[in-house]
Amino acid sequence: MSLPATPDAFPQAFAAAWHSRDGAAIGTLFAEDAEFVNVVGLWWHDRARIAAAHDYALKSFFAETTLKIGTIRQRALGPDHALVQCRFTLSGQTAPDGTLSGDRQTVMSFVLARRDAGWIAVAAQNTDVVPGAETHVNAETFRAADYRNG
């Protein structure tokens, strides 16, 4: 997978890599020493870990998902860096009990650096959108799921 030619094309490249179901394709969009924080705070510190985590998810509970691009915002951080934020809608996730879960919306933030081959992510943060809420409370109305423990 090639790097996007412009920062605002990065969300499309990420979605295309997602739909390939290949974590290595996602990994190619990230610098060797990139950082990635997922929606529950798992924090991966390099391309190999980012690729491995996505490969596992894309071949299991995200195997049938669709990632739809929504609003994209871009801010230049100088001539060779940019912040790109994108709202995504994720559909088709398999719940831990094997049922189909409801759609989720997230906002992903990508810090990008210009390279000869295109724009590459040096950091990313994915944040779930919780409609009607302004923060999280440690109560039974919000829970994270861990697929690793059955």
Automatic annotation (TrEMBL):
Family matches, as InterPro entries: DUF4440, NTF2-like_dom_sf, Steroid_delta5-4_isomerase
Domain DUF4440: 12-119
Lineage: superkingdom: Bacteria
SUPFAM superfamilies referenced in this protein's UniProt entry, alphabetically: NTF2-like
A Pfam family assignment: DUF4440
Full protein name: SgcJ/EcaC family oxidoreductase
Organism: Thalassococcus profundi
Taxonomic path: Bacteria, Pseudomonadati, Pseudomonadota, Alphaproteobacteria, Rhodobacterales
